[in-house]
Write a structure and sequence with these properties.
The complex is a heterodimer of chains A (658) and B (210). Chain A has 658 residues and is mainly alpha-helical. Chain A has 22 helices and no strands. The chains are: A mainly alpha (658), B alpha/beta (210). Chain A: Required for normal Golgi function.
């Protein structure tokens, strides 16, 4: 088989050359290596059969061109075929070109659109942001307005509505708005806040004004005997507190209405009493000044307690909230409360004063006046303690108490001066005269009343001193004057008795104890005098008094030059002496010695001690006489004939009979 | 703050040292003062309490038992709605003096005044000198409400004051106590117009609650 093919045009050289050139070798090798079962080869051979009819030379020679021709044909065909394709492709290309054109345009438009959209988006975003801000602002403004302005309904309420709890709340809120605005004003938003402040101020003004008018009406309606103020009034007052001028006026109004009511009730209690006569009018006891004034002041005291409670409840309710810095406020509230209370009680001051003064001035009994004074003092403490300093009721009671004190002292001085100027005559019993006893009885009542008073123990002595000085001293003086009007013996005993009675009185009360020592001294002096007088009188009764006188003068002269003997003195001769002494011995021995004066001492213990002192005094005198007579210088020849008894004997006899 | 409807005035009387002031303090402050000084003249205490559903303020006047204050304390009987007589169950004499106190009270109070007798110091019942039966008989004879109580432990104290208040309240409702009386010892807290109504028809007063 031939190895010639269009793919190997050089195959002939292989056959031709004896010596294998490298080219031939290559060809051979190629032929050898040609694979016969390759499909390409078979396909090529198949094709060859179509146009290669017979294996002729010509054919063989032409094979190559034939193949080439055929190749060209095929190519021509191919080209022809592809011309359509080309055309179509051109079309396609055209289309594609158009498409791409189109798409490019679209892309461009898209791009443009994109740009536009982006702007729009950006704008939207900005707008959205703005919207948010605006929304926030709106909320803020709404919140601000909500906080800083009243709602129309509230405004309506404030301007025309009834005073009620909501009204007060709104009014409180206006105040709050104002204060908050003012705080804010320091920082920013001046104009808006100024407007708000102005608006709030004018609203508040209107509100306060209406509240004030309403309160005035309500407070004047607060019934005198009602015990409490309606809660709404309390709340209203509390709100009004921030407008102090109006608040003060309201408090004054309250005080006035309570004062008038209190006065009315007081007058009714005084003159009418309860309905049907129970309780009876206070004046029904006008004849009994203590009861009358006591009931009157007790009524006032109880009314005061009730008023105080009422005001306390009112002021607790209106006290500034604890949240406010309130130490100062609560003090001022306390002062306000006290002021109102004092104002209310003013309502009874003049009535009390008029009646008490009338009672006091119509009294003639010092004791009663003193008791009334004590009663007034009690209420000065009791009522004065509940009222602030300087309350008019307190000064009224104080004035009455002073008046009582003054009238008492006047009456006391007058009565004791009367006694002093006209000392009552001393009765024969030498007991204190009834007038003195009556004066002492009065003093006793005064002291016992004073003892029951509220004056603290440490002040009592000083407080009562004037009474002792004005009441007791002239009494002592009067007794002394009476005593001087009679014999010294009687007088001194009378004085002792009077002083003892005074001492008994003063000893009862501690607050008079200071006067006791001096009084005891006075008593001792008078008593000594009395004893001396008694001794003298007894001696005189036995005619020994002149003998004693002679003995004493002889004894004093004996020390000088005279040297006259005792027995030579007038009346001292042994006979006269023994007569007198016998009389004396008779009296002593029969125990018939009369202690006529000292026996009229009113106190038994003093009486018996006085008797012994008299006995001692007589013994003493006798001893003096005895010693003088028995002494050798006396000139008696037989003194023992005259002197029958020794001093010891006499003493024991006398002491035995005391 | 409670709004009360009535104020009742009380007076506490009895011998010195029977524990009047302690009873008052136990009632108003729920405490017992160990070292209570003698009352000087007159003292005053209040407490708001509820009686038959009404808020009532009790205004209590505590008198000095000492004789020297008798003239002063006597003036406080006037217009008391309740008189509380106190004796000490461990002191015979304080019981024996009750007749005097009762006369004093009857002479100076309104006929409608509610009288209560308290035998105080029940905590010292071991040293008792007055039996319950005897005092009870005395109370019955004289138409007094009677209780034994202890100001120290608080036993029966509340009851004594409230029982008196209930009786006063019943008197108001039955019309025995005239609310219009300025000095009946009861002050109503309503407005005047209401009060006149209440006075006329006492039954209305009870139904119209504020």
């Amino acid at each position: 088989m031939s190895n010639g093919s269009e793919n190997h045009p050089s195959a002939g050289s292989l056959v031709g050359g004896p010596t294998p050139s490298p080219a031939i070798a290559k060809k051979v090798k190629k032929v050898v290596e040609l694979r016969l079962d390759a499909p390409e080869l078979s396909a090529a051979l198949d094709q060859l059969t179509e146009f290669y009819g017979a294996n002729t030379l010509e054919n063989r020679r032409n094979l190559k061109s034939c193949i080439e021709k055929r190749g060209i044909d095929v190519n021509h065909q191919f080209i022809n075929c592809f011309e359509d394709v080309m055309k179509k492709l051109d079309h396609v290309e055209n289309y594609v070109m158009k498409l791409s054109d189109c798409s490019q345009r679209m892309q461009q438009r898209l791009h443009t659109a994109q740009t536009t959209t982006a702007q729009v988006l950006k704008l939207t975003e900005q707008l959205q942001k703005k919207e948010h801000t605006a929304e926030a602002h709106k909320n803020l403004v709404l919140a601000f307005l909500d906080r800083f302005r009243l709602k129309p309904s509230e405004m309506q309420l404030l301007q025309t509505g009834e005073v009620s709890d909501p009204f007060l709340e709104v009014l409180d809120r206006v105040g709050q708005i104002q204060s908050e605005s003012k705080q804010l004003l320091r920082v920013h938003h001046k104009t808006a806040l100024m407007d708000i402040v102005d608006e709030a101020a004018s609203l508040q003004e209107k509100g306060f004004d209406r509240l004030y008018r309403w309160l005035q009406k309500e407070l004047s309606n607060v019934q005198g005997d009602s015990s409490d103020v309606p809660l709404l009034v309390k709340k209203g007052l509390k709100t009004l507190r921030s407008r102090s001028a109006l608040y003060k006026v309201c408090l004054e109004d309250l005080a006035v209405s309570r004062r008038q009511a209190l006065h009315k009730r007081f007058v009714a209690a005084l003159s009418r009493g309860g309905p049907g006569g129970t309780p009876k009018p206070i004046e029904i006891h006008a004849h009994d000044p203590l009861r009358y004034i006591g009931d009157m002041l007790a009524w006032v005291h109880q009314a005061l307690a009730s008023e105080r409670e009422l005001l306390a409840s009112l002021f607790i309710a209106t006290r500034p909230d604890s949240s406010e810095p309130s130490k100062m406020n609560s003090v001022t509230a306390r002062v306000e409360e006290d002021k109102v209370l004092a104002g209310v009680l003013d309502g009874v001051s003049s009535t009390v004063q008029a009646r008490v003064e009338a009672v006091l001035q119509s009294q003639s009994s010092a004791v009663l006046i003193f008791k009334l004074g004590n009663l007034l003092l009690f209420y000065l403490h009791t009522i004065g303690g509940l009222l602030p300093d300087g309350a008019s009721l307190t000064s009224t009671i104080q004035g009455c108490h002073k008046l009582a004190g003054k009238l008492f002292m006047e009456l006391l001085t007058a009565s004791s001066q009367r006694l002093y100027k006209q000392p009552p005559p001393c009765p024969s019993t030498l007991a204190p005269h009834n007038d003195i006893l009556a004066a002492l009885e009065e003093l006793k009542e005064v002291m016992s009343s004073f003892d029951a008073s509220l004056i603290p123990a440490r002040l009592r002595e000083n407080y009562f001193k004037p009474v002792v000085e004005e009441g007791v001293e002239p009494l002592i003086g009067a007794c002394a004057l009476s005593a001087n009007a009679i014999t010294p013996a009687e007088g001194s005993i009378y004085l002792v008795n009077c002083l003892l009675a005074i001492q008994t009185l003063l000893q009862r009360y501690d607050f008079c104890a200071w006067r006791i020592p001096r009084l005891q001294n006075q008593i001792a002096q008078a008593l000594e005098q009395g004893i001396k007088e008694q001794v003298l009188i007894i001696m005189r009764q036995c005619n020994l008094d002149d003998k004693m006188y002679s003995v004493r003068s002889w004894k004093s002269e004996q020390r000088g030059e005279g040297m006259e003997s005792l027995s030579g003195m007038v009346g001292m001769d042994p006979l006269a002496l023994s007569i007198s002494l016998k009389q004396f011995y008779g009296v002593v021995l029969t125990s018939s010695l009369e202690y006529r004066y000292v026996d009229r001492l009113s106190t038994s213990s003093i009486r018996s001690s006085a008797r012994s002192k008299v006995a001692a005094g007589i013994t003493q005198s006798y001893k003096e006489l005895y010693d003088a007579i028995i002494s050798p210088e006396s000139g008696y020849r037989e003194p023992h004939a005259i002197l029958l008894h020794g001093p010891q004997q006499i003493e024991s006899l006398l002491m035995g009979s005391v | 703050m409670s709004q009360f409807e009535y104020i009742f005035k009380y007076i506490i009387i009895g011998d010195m040292g029977v524990g009047k002031s302690c009873l008052l303090q136990q009632f108003t402050e729920k405490r017992f003062p160990e070292d209570q000084p003698h009352t000087i003249g007159i003292e005053f205490g209040t407490r708001v309490c509820e009686v038959n559903g009404k808020v009532i303020k009790l205004q209590i006047w505590d008198t000095a038992g000492q004789e020297r204050f008798r003239a002063v304390t006597r003036s406080y009987y006037r217009g008391a709605a309740g008189a509380i007589m106190v004796y000490d169950i461990t002191t015979r004499s304080s019981f024996n003096h009750l007749a005097t106190w009762l006369t004093d009270a009857r002479n100076h109070t309104n006929p409608s005044t509610v009288m209560m007798l308290i035998g105080n110091k029940l905590d010292m019942a071991k040293q008792r000198e007055v039996s319950f039966e005897e005092a009870d008989a005395f109370a019955k004879d004289n138409g007094l409400i009677y209780l034994e109580a202890s100001a120290k432990t608080g036993q029966n104290v509340e009851e004594a004051f409230l029982r008196t208040a209930r009786k006063i309240y019943e008197n108001i409702q039955s019309g025995a106590l005239d609310l219009n009386a300025a000095e009946s010892g009861v002050v109503s807290n309503r407005t005047r117009s209401n009060r006149i109504k209440a006075g006329q028809t006492p039954t209305n007063a009870s139904s119209c609650s504020c």
